[in-house]
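Our consortium's second objective concerns turning raw sequence data into structural hypotheses that experimental partners can test. To show how far this objective has progressed, the report includes one record in full. It was chosen at random from the queue rather than selected for favorable results. The single chain below, 145 residues long, was entered without modification.
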Amino acid sequence: MYREAWQRYRRTMFWRKYGTTVITSVENLFTKMRKEFGEFDEKLRKVNKLRLLEQKSRTYNKYVQVFKRAVRESSYEGRPLIEEFKRKLNGVIRRRLAEAELPPTTIDKWQERAVKCTVTRRAKAQLEQRVQEFPENGNRRKKTN
């Protein structure tokens, strides 16, 4: 009972001091910290922006554009930049590119091949879907409504 009262007291004191703002993401946390304490190391913020970048629901083409924009702002270059890009790639595509006969060696090649690989993969899936629509004897399946 004492423990619960103490926790309730601490929560109340925290809410009075900091408000009831809920931090929903890391980016939200950084924004709140910048408001509270002012701007911290600008270079570090740009590097963190690059490291926290995720593909989410973007296409690879759009993701590569956003990644390039973040790279321009950060100080990453060379091998660390390639590793950062590879870390965010889809596992299947990353493996396919790394196990290629001539794997990419520059960040531009990695980005170019990742986009091509996803386009080919999408085209292959569409082709397989079309093939399934037509049986081997060449007659279309009848659609049932």
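The partners drew two points from this record. The longest helix spans residues 107-133. The mean pLDDT is 76. Both points have been shared with the crystallography group to help prioritize constructs.
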